[in-house]
Design a protein that fits this description.
- The complex is a heterodimer of chains A (228) and B (110).
- Chain A is α/β, with parallel strands linked by helices and 228 residues long.
- Helices cover 44% and strands 21% of the residues of chain A.
- A seven-stranded mixed sheet of chain A has the order 3-2-1-4-6-5-7, with helices on both faces.
- Chain B has four helices and no strands.
- Chain B is rod-shaped and about 75 Å long.
- The longest helix of chain B is centred in the C-terminal third of the chain and has 48 residues.
- Classes of the chains: A alpha/beta (228), B mainly alpha (110).
- The interface between A and B is medium-sized, with 25 and 23 residues.
Chain lengths: 228, 110
């Protein structure tokens, strides 16, 4: 990053998020960042609403999954000259104010990845079952990647241009959260964790991962290792 | 006992895979679950496999063939699944290229 303010692109992968996408995009814009919404083949008006709210919209013709949406966003943002790319959930559980915390962490620590951690920060209205599931996922990831992270399935992260260029997500669905950590570990680039705030709502809990998805994630991670 | 210890984790793995496949394709998932459960059962209760063999009028040595048939069938299923995943990756690349090209074209005209 040079002396000029870095060009920050916030990538928001969205699928049928019409009820909340306008406020999410508006929050990101208000904080002063470019909001890039990947409309992942939504069957509602997500894309149109996001564009109306001031977001740049890239639309998948078919629904591919959040991981695929993030990779599309990363590639598009890189091609548009982004210096810093932030991934941000579309369901309204993240706070745009935390983006500055992540960017600051990147700059202060000279890191290429800043990973948001709700366990270093705060999580409001988090059900106990979700907390236990996330803790188990964190333990699994620490064992398989060697990364000393405290929160593995947090969609709020920032990466430098160099960091983003080293990421190539091939897990289209939820397993991308583990895959990105594997790729960070494999890249050998520096990473840092930063405290962020997650606020669960009835809407985000209904849209979020379920216990049954855990098995699917494990199968996806295993299957990925079985083919090139 | 050695064969049982080798086959059991393999069949349990196939059973897990079949359960996850159930959501994508109930018919394939159900058949695979039944095959895996049947395989597990006959691995641990081979006498019933013999009785079944006798019941349907074939000899005991066919037990092994049944096991092998189950394993090979499920391996083919796994292979098919992996091929589908590989195709999905290609479709993803195409859909991404198209999405990015459309967005660039839209940005340049607006």
């Amino acid at each position: 990053m040079g002396s000029q303010a870095p060009q920050v692109w916030v990538v928001i992968a969205a699928y049928n998020e019409a009820p909340v996408i306008a406020s999410v995009v508006a929050d990101v814009k208000r904080a002063g960042y470019c909001a890039l919404v990947i409309d992942d083949g939504s069957t509602d008006a997500t894309g149109a609403i996001a564009a109306e709210a001031g977001g740049i919209v890239v639309r998948h013709s078919i629904n591919l999954g959040q991981g695929a949406g993030l990779q599309t966003g990363i590639e598009f943002a890189l091609s548009e000259g982004a210096d810093v790319i932030v991934t941000f959930d579309a369901d309204g559980q993240h706070h745009a104010a935390d983006i500055a915390v992540l960017i600051d962490a990147l700059a202060r620590q000279g890191a290429d990845f800043a990973l948001g951690s709700r366990f270093l920060g705060t999580s409001l209205n988090q059900p106990l079952s979700r907390r236990m599931l996330l803790k188990a996922a964190t333990l699994f990831t620490r064992l398989t990647t060697g990364l000393r992270v405290t929160d593995t399935h947090n969609g709020l992260r920032a990466m430098t241009r160099r960091g983003a260029s080293s990421i190539n997500l091939r897990q289209n669905r939820m397993a991308h959260a583990s895959e990105i950590l594997h790729q960070i570990a494999a890249s050998g680039l520096n990473y840092v964790e930063a405290p962020v705030r997650i606020e669960y709502s009835a809407y985000s809990l209904a849209k979020g991962q379920k216990l049954g998805d855990t098995l699917m994630i494990l199968v996806d991670l295993f299957a990925r290792r079985l083919h090139r | 006992m050695i064969a049982q210890l080798i086959l059991t984790p393999f069949l349990l793995g196939i059973l897990l895979y079949a359960l996850t496949e159930y959501r994508r394709s109930p018919a394939v998932g159900l058949i695979a679950v039944l095959a895996a459960v049947g395989g597990l059962y006959f691995v641990w209760v081979p006498s019933h496999a013999t009785r079944l063999a006798e019941f349907v009028g074939i000899g005991r040595g066919v037990d092994l063939i049944i096991y092998i048939w189950i394993v090979i069938s499920l391996l083919l299923l796994l292979n098919l699944h992996l091929k589908l995943r590989a195709h999905m990756e290609l479709i993803t690349v195409l859909a991404r290229e198209l999405a990015i090209a459309n967005a660039r074209s839209h940005r340049s005209t607006s």
